[in-house]
Design a protein that fits this description.
203 residues; elongated; 0% strand; Four Helix Bundle (Hemerythrin (Met), subunit A); 10 helices; mainly alpha
């Protein structure tokens, strides 16, 4: 009973916050509602027993992506009123694409549910869920069957990080850059000039 009430609570807040993400006029409020939606989705994953996925959702999306969105929205002077102009002309195409995706999902569900081997797949032996931990199962699959894709994804992220650093630290005319080595090697004699002023000779 408690799990059912928690599921309906998380689901209701998730749907409401997702609706407010796309309807809020203030972009900062949209990002905050997006963070709320991520937290409620993580709660649903915890109810399903996928605590690893819930933790990754909170760490990656809430801790990195949503916070990045928030800082970008707050720091950049973007005219969102100009961006919204002409947005309604894309609504029909969006409805068509949404209908196509819904039809594909229904076709996929029907092909799986009404397949001839549906009963056989349900009756196939499965290991006891209590004997296999969620994180251990994901690790066994990730580092055995998908280890190449995992390494390629890591290399892509590394190249993207190096590219961002190179673009940020490029040499631009008229911009003074900090030279840490020169600052550390500076001596008092380089910047101080001690004068012995005799009494009565001052201004």
């Amino acid at each position: 009973m408690i799990e059912t009430a928690a599921f309906y609570l998380f689901a209701a807040v998730l749907l409401l916050s997702a609706l407010l993400v796309i309807t809020a006029r203030n972009p900062v409020h949209s990002v905050l509602f997006l963070i709320l939606a991520f937290f409620n989705a993580a709660g649903l994953f915890v109810l399903l027993g996928a605590e690893f996925v819930a933790l990754i959702l909170v760490i990656v999306y809430v801790g990195a992506v949503a916070v990045l969105f928030l800082f970008v929205v707050m720091m950049l002077d973007i005219s969102f009123a100009d961006l919204r102009k002409g947005a309604m002309q894309y609504v029909p195409m969006g409805m068509v694409l949404g209908g196509v995706l819904l039809a594909e999902l229904l076709a996929l569900y029907g092909a799986w549910h009404f397949a001839p081997q549906f009963a056989q797949n349900l009756a196939s032996p499965m290991p006891d869920a209590a004997d296999v931990q969620n994180t251990m199962a994901l690790g066994n699959v990730l580092y055995t069957e998908y280890v190449f894709a995992f390494q390629v994804a890591g290399m892509i992220l590394l190249v993207a990080m190096i590219g961002a650093i190179v673009l940020t630290h490029r040499v631009r005319p008229g911009v003074r850059r900090q030279k840490v080595a020169d600052q550390v090697a500076r001596k008092p004699s380089d910047v101080l000039d001690i004068q012995n002023v005799a009494p009565g000779s001052g201004a």
